[in-house]
Task: inverse folding
């Protein structure tokens, strides 16, 4: 992992950890968007994974699931593994970092069925949502699907319903229009 990417991820995870403690959903969403913009430029899988995870946290924590039996278990699992992932990245132990991040996802499978199904669905929808945003940044549909581990069909279906594909491309103006504009500027 490149040093700049690593430092960016450490900052995002550190702020995400604090946002989860403070229940600051808006900050989580903003952090995800910031990370996604950077990831779109570098097409870095680690940054993309963090963007998806942080966005998923924003969706999960914006709802009140305290009534679910294993909510406290999920909350602790998330906090503990985020803290560990930050620690391992700072120590340049990328293997342990990846394990800590994966532990969040693996831990979900041990939750109460209703909570587990909801959280897994949020993560899947977050992948597709963030994929559409990467595609919106000009990365090809095939490359975007590959980066996020989803099918092109899933991405095309989502993009088609959101209207992202309908955004008009920039229009070139004629030489005559440019000259008229230039004349107006210098009058």
Result:
């Amino acid at each position: 992992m490149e040093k700049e990417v690593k430092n960016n991820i450490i900052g995002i995870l550190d702020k995400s950890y604090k946002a989860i403690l403070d229940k600051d959903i808006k900050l989580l969403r903003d952090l995800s968007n910031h990370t996604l913009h950077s990831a779109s430029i570098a097409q870095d899988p680690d940054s993309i994974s963090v963007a998806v995870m942080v966005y998923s946290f924003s969706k999960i924590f914006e709802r009140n699931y305290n009534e679910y039996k294993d909510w406290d278990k999920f909350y602790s699992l998330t906090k503990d593994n985020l803290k560990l992932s930050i620690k391992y990245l700072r120590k340049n132990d990328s293997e342990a970092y990846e394990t800590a991040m994966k532990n969040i996802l693996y831990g979900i499978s041990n939750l109460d069925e209703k909570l587990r199904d909801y959280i897994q669905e949020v993560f899947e929808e977050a992948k597709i949502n963030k994929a559409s945003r990467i595609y919106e940044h000009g990365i090809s549909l095939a490359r975007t699907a590959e980066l996020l581990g989803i099918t092109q069909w899933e991405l095309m279906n989502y993009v088609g319903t959101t209207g992202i594909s309908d955004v008009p491309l920039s229009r070139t103006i004629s030489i005559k229009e440019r000259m008229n504009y230039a004349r107006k500027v210098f009058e």
Remarks:
- DSSP finds nine helices and no strands in the chain.
- Residues 164-170 have pLDDT under 50 and may be disordered.
- Residues 3-186 form one domain.
